[in-house]
């Protein structure tokens, strides 16, 4: 399975998971500590060819309150890094969640993708 197929499968799974928890009724933006930001960045770049070249922007963390009373969280942002040829590929959206002190990455989409728009409000 290639990277884009994996992201598509993740998006479908997230949509089904969100349907089980009920629609999101409200979102609250949460502050992130420097340690949490570093954890997210390390997780996102874990399999990159040149993780030290990574540039991040639009990093944000939300607490989601669902219609059925459950609470979840979402961490979103965009990352740009160098490829095998040494060129930057463009900012790509990513999403995941904080679980205790760890970051669980849902996936990184291709540049310009709208894959995580429903999870990651602007």
Q: Secondary structure elements and their pairing?
A:
Blueprint: H1 3-21, E1 24-30, H2 34-44, E2 55-66, E3 71-80, E4 92-99, E5 102-108
Antiparallel strand pairs: 1-2, 2-3, 3-4, 4-5
The figure for the number of domains is: 1
Query: Would you identify the regions where 5 or more consecutive residues have pLDDT less than 50?
Result: 11-19
Widest beta sheet: strand line-up: 1-2-3-4-5
Order of helices and strands: HEHEEEE
How far the N terminus sits from the C terminus, by CA atoms, comes to 30 Å
Q: What is the helix content?
A: 10-25%
Which geometry do the CA atoms define?
globular
Radius of gyration: 14 Å
The residue-averaged pLDDT reads: 85
Overall number of strands = 5
Total helical segments: 2
Q: Can you describe what's shown?
A:
By secondary structure, this protein is an alpha+beta fold. The protein has one domain (3-108). Helices cover 25% and strands 36% of the residues. It has two helices and five strands. The longest helix is centred in the first third of the chain and has 19 residues, at 3-21. The radius of gyration is 14 Å and the shape is globular. The chain starts with a helix and ends in a 14-residue tail after the last strand. Mean pLDDT is 85; it is low at 11-19.
